[in-house]
Amino acid sequence: MATETAIDVVMPQMGVSVSEGTITRWLKSEGEHVESDEPLLEISTDKVDTEVPSPASGTVTRILVQEGETVDVGTKLAQIGGAAAEPAPETATQDAAQAADAPSSAETPQPTRPQAPTAEERVAVQQPTGNGKFVSPVVARIASEHGVDPGQVEGTGRGGRVTKKDILSFIEHGAGAAAPPQPAAPEGPTEAPPQAPPAQAPAAPKAAPPLAPAEVLPGEQLEPASAMRRGIAEHMRRSLDTSAHVTSAIEVDMSKVVAARERLKKEYQAAYGVNPTYLAFVAQAAVQTLRDYPYVNGELRGDSIVTRNFVNLGIAVELAEGKGLIVPVIRSAETMNLLGLAKGIAEIAAKARNKQLLPDDVQGGTFTITNPGGYGTFHGTPVISQPQSAILGTYALVKRPWVIEDESGNDSIAIKPIMNVTLTYDHRLVDGAYAGRFLRDLRERLEAWEGDGG
Amino acid sequence: MAELTYLQAISDGLRTEMRRDKRVFLIGEDVGVYGGAFKVSLGFQEEFGPWRVLDAPLAETAIIGACTGASIVGMRPVAEMQFADFISCGWDQLVTVAAKQRWRAGTPVPIVVRLPSGGGFSGGPFHSQNPESSFAHIPGLKCVCPATPEDAKGLLIAAIEDPNPVLYFEHKHLYRRIKGEVPEERYTVPIGKARTHRDGDDVSVITWGAMVYTAEEAARQLEGDGVSVEIVDLRTVMPWDKGAVLASARKTSKVLVLHEDTRTGGFGAEIAATVAEEAFEDLDAPVKRIAAPDTPVPFSPPLEKAFIPQVDDVVKGLRELAEY
Fold it and tell me: Is the pLDDT of residue A92 over 80?
C-alpha cells in the first residue's frame, strides 16, 4: 500500500465569473512523472484557454476527467502521488450497484453525457462529513463503502463521535433503505435549471444548453463543441438578440500611414523589437477619435447610458485552425502612443495564441477592433462584443485607382493604398449620423497621419 | 499430560533435547553444580555430566563466543545468562559475530541464549530488565518470549532446532507462579506464530511474556462493563506475527500494545507503527501503548509497581479505547 501523500489536481478558478472548464488535452498520462509547476493539462473555459501547471512533483496516479469533459471549478481532475487507483474500482463497483438500485438516476437516459458520473462526482456525494465531527479511518471507509454520511449516524463515542459499531448498526438497521445515499442525480443536463448569470455579464443566461442529441447522417462526423465554441455560440446569438446591429463603411486612403509605417518600421524593430502593424495605426486613430464620440465607447446599461474617460480596447484574435476567437483587452489604451499600442497588440496576441491569457486579460473591454482583412476581404458585418456598443472592422489594404482632385478642381486618377473600415454599432445607442461622423473623423486622422501620430 | 510450572516446562524442554541430541549442551554461570540461579538445570550435571553442563566464568563474552564457535563446528549450544541484564557484556559476540556469521560466511550459528528477564520482585536495575527490543532490532537474531508452560517447552525446543541464534526470554516472574498442562512428549511451537490468548470483539491487546497475565486480569475486570477484550500473545517478538496482529486490529479496530520494557523505542512502537501503516482504514481509535516509563527499573517495591504496567493501568487504557 503506497503511503506517499496524494495531491489533488482540481479545475482552477479562472476568473470570478468562470464556473466550469473543459479538459482539452492531458499533457501527461497516468503513470507518468510530472514536476511541480510543469504543465499538466490544457483547459478551456468560456473566457480563456490555458495550461494548468502541476501542483506537485510526483507520478500521475489517476486521471479522473477525460479530454472533452466539462466540469465545475474545484472538481478533482487528477491525483499526483498516493496509491494508484486502488480505492477507485471498489467505489465504482459499489456505485454501479447502487445506481442499479436507484431508478431515478439509472433509468433516465442522459444522452448528452453518456459516461457514468465521473469518479469525483461520486466522491463528492459520498465524502463523509460526520457533521464536522472527527471521523475515524474505519468509519470513513465503511461510510464510503455503503454510501452513508456519518453525519446521519448517531454517535456514542467520545463527544458524540460515530464509532465503528455505530455505523455498522446504522447500516444493519436498514439505513440504506431509509436514506438513499445519493439523493439526486448529480446533474440532469437536459433539464438543467438556468444558472445564475456571471456577475460580469449582465443578461447572460450562461452557456447555451448542450444541443439535443444529434442524429448522425451518412457521411457526417460529430465532435463535441469545446467550451470556447459553446461560449462563442451563446455570445454571438445573445449579442444579435440584444443590440440593433447596423454597419457603416468608409474607404480610407492609407498613403500617409503606409509611408509613416515604412519609416517607423525599422526604428521600432531595431529599438523595441516591435512591428508597427496597420492595425496599430488604426487602433491609435480610433482611440483618439473615441474621445469625441463617447457613445461609441459607451454602453446601454438598463435605462442608463454609460460613457467613460478611458478606452479598454479589445482586439479580436483568431486562434489556430479555426479553434475559436478570443478578444483580449488592452487597458487604458487612451494613454498609449503608437509604440505602446503596437507592443500591447503583439503581446496580447502572443498570449492568446500561447494560451497564457488570464481572466482579467479578456474582461472589461469598452470598444473592439476586429481585423478580418488578412485574407483579402474588403467588407464585413462583425458582431458587437456585449455589452459594448460598437466594433470597428478593418479590411484588406489594396491598391486601387483613386480619383483625386487638385487645388484647381481637376480630377485625376492615382494608385492609392485603400483600406475599407467598418463600424458596426448598436443603433439603440448610436445614431447613424453619429457613427458616420466617427468614421469621417477616423478617416481624416488616418489620411493626415504624420510621424508616429502623436 | 502433566501440570508443570513455567520453570519446570523450561527444564523439561531442555532435558528433552539434551536426551535426544548429544550435540546439545548447556553453559552458564552456576548452571552445573548449583543447578542454575533459578534451578532450571537442577540435576542436569548429574544426568548429562560436566562436559554437557558447563559452569562458566563470569564472562558473558566468553560464554556467547564459545557457543558461537561450538555451533560453527556442529554443536547445539544453549547458553544461560544468569540475568538477561548481563547480556550487554556479550553484546559484541552476539551482535557482531553470531548474528552476522551466516551473512558473512554462510555458516549457520544454531545457538540459544536463555535470558531470565523481567521484574516484579524488587530485583533493581541490574536484575529486572526486558531487553528484547534491543535484539529484535538486530538482523540475524530471533527473539522468543513464551508466556505459558506449554509454549515455554515448545519454543525452547524450536529455538534449539533453529539454525539461527535465538534469544529465549524466560520471564522470572512466571517461573513458579504460572502452571499449566504440558505434553510429556517432544513438540515444538513454531517461532513467529502468535497465539490468541483470549477472544474478544471490542479492543485488542497485543502483548507477550508476563504482560499476557496482566492483560488477562484487566480483561476479566472489564467483562462486567460489557467490554470484550481480545488478547494476542505474540510469543515471538522477532520475527513477529504481523498477520495475526493485523487480523485482530481489523476485527476490533482498536489496539492497545502492552509491554513491560520501557516505552521509547520499545517493540510496541514497531507494532503500533505497523498497525497504523497497514491497517489504517480499519482503525476506529488511535493505537495506544502501555509500557514502562523511560527510566531504569526501580528497586523500591512501590516504585517498581509504579514502573511496571499494572492491571489498573491496563484497565484504564482499555476503558479509554472502548469509550473512544
Answer: no
Mean pLDDT, to the nearest integer, of A388-412?
92
Residue A427 annotated to the active site = yes
- Smallest CA-to-CA distance from A315 within A270, A264, A277 is with A277
> What angle, rounded to 10 degrees, do the helices at A255-272 and A432-447 form?
60
Residues B171-186, mean pLDDT to the nearest whole number: 96
Closest CA to B115 of B97, B141, B139, B150: B141
Which 3 state secondary structure label does DSSP give A388? coil
Taking CB atoms and an 8 Å limit, are A136 and B282 in contact across chains? no
Q: CA dist A372 to A257, A324, A419, Å?
A: 19, 14, 12
Q: Strand, coil or helix: what is A5?
A: coil
Distances (CA, A) of B307 to A15, A442, B128, B259: 63, 96, 11, 11
Indicate if the pLDDT at residue A61 is higher than 80. yes
Backbone angles phi, psi at A374, to 5 degrees: -60, -25
Q: How many CB atoms lie within 10 A of CB A216?
A: 9
Residues A71, A21: Cα–Cα separation, whole Å: 6
Closest alpha carbon to B93 in B127, B140, B41: B140
Q: Out of A47-56, B285-294, B299-308, which region has the weakest mean confidence (pLDDT)?
A: A47-56
User: Looking at CA atoms only, how far is residue A1 from chain B in angstroms?
Assistant: 7
pLDDT value of position A366: 95
Provide residues of B within 8 Å CB-CB of chain A. 253, 277-278, 280-285, 323-324
Residues 6 or more apart in contact with residue B198 via CB below 8 angstroms: B216, B219, B229, B230, B231
Least CB-CB distance to A138: which of B277, B283, B323?
A: B283
| Beta pairing class for B288-292 and B236-238 | unpaired
> What are the chain B neighbours of A136 within 8 Å (beta carbons)?
253, 283-285
Residue B47, amino acid: E
Q: Which of A110-119, A123-132, B9-18, B215-224 has the lowest mean pLDDT?
A: A110-119
The number of residues making up chain B comes to 324
Using alpha carbons only, what angle is made at residue A53 by residues A52 and A56, rounded to the nearest 5 degrees? 135
Sheet containing A313-315: give its strands across: A245-253, A411-426, A390-405, A367-370, A313-315, A329-330
Neighbours of B245 (CB within 10 A): 22
Orientation of helix A432-447 relative to helix A278-290, angle to 10° = 130
Instruction: At A72, list the grid cell.
Output: 465545475
Residues of A in contact with B285 (CB under 8 A): 136
User: Which residues from chain A sit within 8 angstroms of residue B277, using beta carbons?
Assistant: 1, 3
Which residues, in sequence order, are CB contacts of B13 under 8 Å at separation 6+? B152, B153, B154, B155, B156, B157
Whether residue A315 contacts residue A283, with contact meaning beta carbons closer than 8 Å, is answered with: yes
Alpha carbon separation from B80 to A289, B33, B67, B76, B131 (Å, rounded): 106, 14, 11, 13, 15
Which residues, other chains included, contact A364 with Cβ-Cβ below 8 Å and sequence gap of 6+?
A312, A329, A331
Interface test with B, best of A135, A158, A163 (most B CBs within 10 A): A163
